Amino acid sequence: HRPGACKPASLAPSAAEYSVQDFHGTQLYSLERFLGVLTNLDQDGRVLLTRHPTDRTRNRLQFVLMNPSVYFNDITRAARSVVLAGGTMQPVSAVVSELFPDLPAAKVDLFSCGHIVPKGNLTALCLDRGPSGTLFDFTFSNRSRPEVILECGRLV
User: Fold this and answer.
1) Does the residue 80 lie in any domain?
2) Residues 76 and 59 in one domain
3) Could you mention a single GO BP entry for this protein (predicted)?
């Protein structure tokens, strides 16, 4: 990644979100990292200010990365090969064009296994609580809470 810019912890379909509260360490270090992501080009992201109507401590200033290729350019230049492995990445052409916009199509090899689990072996359920009644709230701020992780483990 570029010096002074944060590496995204995770990428949403076409955006990575950063806010000062997301980084670990001192407040000054958090501010430095946040200012680092602001060095991205204007067209690569947006700065969002979210104001809470009654609690000023819950106001948020965020940088949303709209162009993930910013971080993949360095990887593709330095690497001999890049393998993207995952579940549903359809349409693949959109993923490739977002992450590798300057890569010629002749250099892209695609391999797909199709659906490897028989349909009869799948069940989709929607649950809002675990076996002991703990609310499943997998937002960024709650996903690392031990009680949420343990409750998810109990369910599985």
Assistant:
1) yes
2) no
3) establishment of sister chromatid cohesion
Whether 154 is covered by a domain: the verdict is yes
Query: How many C-beta atoms surround the C-beta of residue 32 within 10 A?
Result: 13
Query: In the prediction, which pLDDT does 132 show?
Result: 93
In a shared domain, residues 60 and 75: no
Cβ neighbours, 10 Å, residue 90:
9
pLDDT tens for residues 37-76? 888 777 888 888 999 999 988 888 888 888 888 778 888 8
Q: What are phi and psi of 130, to 5 degrees?
A: -90, -175
On whether both 45 and 77 belong to a single domain, the answer is no
Nearest Cα residue to 18 out of 32, 81, 28, 26: 32
Q: Rounded distance, CA 86 to CA 69, Å? A: 18
- Alpha-carbon gap, residue 8 to 15, rounded angstroms: 10
Bridge partner list, 50:
60
The pTM of the whole model exceeds 0.85: no
Q: What is the pLDDT of residues 83-117, one digit of tens each?
A: 887 777 778 888 888 888 888 888 888 887 777 77
Rounded alpha-carbon distances, angstroms, from residue 26 to 33, 91, 95, 125 = 11, 41, 35, 41
**Is 82 part of any domain?**
yes
Domains identified in the chain, total number: 3
Residues 79 and 43 in one domain: no
